Amino acid sequence: MSETAAAMRAEFTKLRGVRGTFGALLLFAPVSLLIGALGGWSARNAIESDNPLLRSDFTPEQAGLDGVLYGQLALIVFAVLLVSTEYSSGMMRVSLMAVPRRGRLYLAKTAVTAAAALAVAVPVTVLGYLLTQSALGPHSAGIDASGVPRALAGSVVYLTLMSLFAAGVASAARGAVVPLAVMLPMVLAGSQILSTIGATKEMVRYLPDRAGMRMLTVGSDDALTGFLVLLAWTVAALAFGFLRHRRWDG
Question: For residue 68, which of 46, 42, 47, 39 has the smallest C-alpha distance?
Fold first, then answer.
């Protein structure tokens, strides 16, 4: 087994052994699926009762992806904890004794972050869409509807890149408090609020979460642009995180 593979195996072992980190990863599925099902059920009732509160741009295709947008909060927490816990606990010294080459250790951590996020994102995205459509009943749309397969694939890529972005920010901060205090409110509501303000509306389009969401938009003509913007943010965060990791002296 190569040293990089051994380092990745060790990181997977740490992931399973730290309850908070592993719990955050597991939480992604129930949060996404529950919100998807409730959203579908609520929309069905609104449609059938001609409720004016149903948003004007509602489509069953897009509703099938709403759940993972809330579930991503769990993935962000997972990625931040996976990277930051060893800094705050002092265990980073032990890890560096086992894997002295800092680049290899950083690569192992980011690779495990991406692999774990991808492993849960694929089934949860598909199942969440199907569950939402089931709750919508006669108002549902098939998984093969126009634009849906691309949006589902975009969702998986988005979730994986956002997890890596969070990991890079956590490494740069060398802790969990600042990344979580900034990223969770921003993803949950901050960027949405800023997008309604004239002075910041154009700028917000290039924030990582808002840009990346174009990948999840069914029928979007801007998906590639959104991917490139989010990719640029992710690469920058990982690069800065690595520089901070390389200079860490405990």
Answer: 39
- Residues 52-61: contacts with CB under 8 Å, at least 24 apart: 59/141, 59/218, 60/132, 60/133, 60/136, 60/139, 60/140, 60/141, 61/141, 61/145, 61/147, 61/148, 61/151, 61/218, 61/219
| SS3 at position 56 | coil
- Overall average pLDDT of the 79-105 stretch: 79
> Tokens 């590639």 correspond to what residue?
224
pLDDT for the residue 10: 80
Angle between helices 66-89 and 148-173 (to 10 degrees): 20
| Residues 74/23, Cβ–Cβ less than 8 Å | no
- What is the C-alpha to C-alpha distance for residues 245 and 248, in angstroms, rounded to an integer? 5
User: How do residues 163-217 score in pLDDT, each as one tens digit?
Assistant: 999 999 999 988 888 888 888 888 877 666 666 665 566 777 888 998 899 999 9
| One-letter identity of residue 18 | V
Q: Please give the model's pTM, rounded to 2 decimal places.
A: 0.91
Provide the residue type at 146 as one letter: S
Can you list the pairs that 52-57 forms with residues at least 24 positions away whose Cβ atoms lie under 8 Å? none
Give me the percent of the chain exceeding a pLDDT of 70: 93
Asked whether 148 and 50 are in contact (CB, 8 A), the reply is no
